[in-house]
Amino acid sequence: MDRVSNGRIGRFEIHASSDGANRGAAVATGTWADNSLEKTSGFTLVATRLVRLTAITEAGNRGPWTGAAELNLVAETGTPQPPPPAPAPAALTRTGWTVAASDQETTREDGSAANVLDGSLTMIWHSQYSPTLVPLPHSIILDMRATNEVSGFTYAPRSGTSRNGTIGQYAIAVSSGGTTWSAPLASGTWADTSQAKAVTFPAVQARYIRLIATTEAGNRGQWTSMAELNVIGRSLSAPPPAPTPRGRREPGVRRSVSRWFPRWRPFCPATNC
C-alpha cells in the first residue's frame, strides 16, 4: 500500500456532459475525509458520455496536489454502466464488391454495370439499346463478397441534362447464395428527378442485393440507367486480407528460420539430402 497521503482529495465536484463542452450544474459535491479508504459519491442517475471529477482542496492541506489510484462509474443499482448502443447503420464500404446486370450498353457508350461502383456520378450503367434494344424490366445485382446486415439502399440517377433511364417502379430483393431470392423487401415508384433515391426496410442478413427496374420514370423509353448504388447496413465481418505474393517478406519478419530453430532441416528422402 502507498503510505504517502499527499494529494488525497478533500472538497470535490462532479459534472456530467454529453459533449465535453456543456457541463451544467454539478451532479455531486462534498468533502472526503483525509484517509486511505475508498471514497464514493452518489447522485441522481443521468444519461451522459463524459464525467469530470474536480478536486478543489487537498484533504490534509499538505499542498496543492491531487492524486488518485482508480476511478469507477456505477449505475444506480451498483452494476457497471451498460455498453453504448450500436452505431446507426451507414453506407457499407464497397471495397471488393462486384456487380452484374441483366444487360448493359457497351457498343454505343461505356454503359457497363461496373460503373455503379466506381464512385463517379458521370459514369453510368445503361441498359442495352444497340445493336438491339433490350426492353424493361432490367435488373442489377450487387455481390458484397460477404454476408452483411442490410437495411437500406440508395440509388443515384445519372447526372447531366438527360434523365433517360431514371427508374420509376422498382423492387429490391436479397439472397445468401445468389440463386434463390427473397420476396421483395421494398418496392415502390421513384420520382422522375435527378436527386438520389433512398429506401429502407427491416434489417436482414444477406450477401447479394438485386434491384429490378420495371418502368422508366418519365415513360421516355425502355431504358434503365444509374450512376451509383450503395447499401445501408452494418458489416458483420472484416473483408478477407489481400493475398501475399510469393517471395515477399512482410515487415518485421526475419529471413532465416534457422536463427530461431537451429536444428531444423527440410524433410527429404535420405538419398537426396
TrEMBL record:
Entries under SUPFAM superfamilies matching the protein: Galactose-binding domain-like
Record's protein name: Discoidin domain-containing protein
One Pfam family recorded for the sequence: F5_F8_type_C
Domain F5/8 type C intervals: 86-234
Coiled-coil regions, chain positions: none
Region called Disordered, residue ranges: 234-255
PROSITE patterns in the record: FA58C_3
Organism name: Cryobacterium sinapicolor
